[in-house]
Amino acid sequence: MKRSKREDKISIEKESLKKLPDPVTVGAIIPSAGLGERLQGNKKKQFRNLNGKPIVLHVLERLIDSKLLNYISLVLPKKQLNSVFIPNDSLVDIKLVEGGIDRKSSVKNGLNALPNEVKWVVVHDGVRPLFTKDLLERCLLEACHTGASLAAFAITDTLKLSNESMNTLQTVSRENIWSAQTPQVVRKELLERAYTDFKGDNSEVTDESSLLEKIGVKSRIVLSNKMNVKITTKEDLLLAEFYLRQENKLN
């Protein structure tokens, strides 16, 4: 039976949603210039060892190994610009970029270092080393369809609102409440417009999706899980070490 034009159009649209962008049009920013004060020790958290190598190097290598992008801006503190070993056999163009005074400024510096060929920007925390290629692919696909996406998982714990004395005031509904993670993927021109148009306090911007929200751009949630942990405390580091051991056993 011959299909209608409408059915052909729907088929083409569905097929287009399966297509990842050409890696030459994708660049990543790894914001890793923070102080890392919550993870105690004589090293900033992004340079602490996880399974024998710095946490931020795990992130860098996973992005390279994904083969989903051709450019990376690795944003580091000024005094640590040469603290990370950069693989010299990689086909990915990696630039070391000096960080700013806060996350928003650091990501902007990384954005400015990406070449004109880049149309899609992946932002991934330098202390979130256990993301998977599958998660990155799904974030890219969703952003290609909607313009912006972020990894997140649904909150399952009971949420409490307290006063300053830490006395409970009420239980907060978990409905439609998500814990935001990275990767966050956005069309480059949207992110550039957000930096141009938003004139508010930088402290209001805790990630790229919150910056996009300031100019009225919504990001589509891509399902993730707690294994994509952000290492900010000693407990997080222990958890990441456990997850990594389990991942290595499966592989």
Task: Explain what this protein looks like in three dimensions.
The protein is of the alpha/beta class. The chain has a single domain (19-250), classed as Spore Coat Polysaccharide Biosynthesis Protein SpsA, Chain A (Alpha-Beta Complex), CATH 3.90.550. It has seven helices and eleven strands. It has helices at 5-17, 55-66, 103-112, 133-146, 188-197, 208-214, 234-250; strands at 26-31, 49-50, 53-54, 71-76, 93-98, 120-123, 148-154, 159-162, 168-172, 178-187, 220-223. The strands form three sheets. It has a seven-stranded mixed β-sheet with strand order 5-4-1-6-10-7-11, sandwiched between helices. It has a two-stranded antiparallel ribbon with strand order 2-3. A two-stranded antiparallel sheet has the order 8-9. Strand 8 (159-162) and strand 9 form a beta hairpin. Helix 5 crosses helix 6 (208-214). The model is unreliable at 8-16 (pLDDT under 50).
The gross shape turns out to be: globular
Strand content: 15-25%
Mean pLDDT: 90
Flag low-confidence runs. Answer: 8-16
Which bin fits the share of residues in helices? 25-40%
Under CATH, the topology is which? Spore Coat Polysaccharide Biosynthesis Protein SpsA, Chain A
CATH superfamily: Spore Coat Polysaccharide Biosynthesis Protein SpsA, Chain A
The separation of the N and C termini measures 46 Å
Which strand order spans the largest sheet, edge to edge or round the barrel?
5-4-1-6-10-7-11
Number of helices: 7
Task: Work out the number of β strands.
Answer: 11
Along the chain, the helix and strand elements come as: HEEEHEEHEHEEEEHHEH
**Biggest β-sheet: count, sense, barrel?**
7 strands, mixed
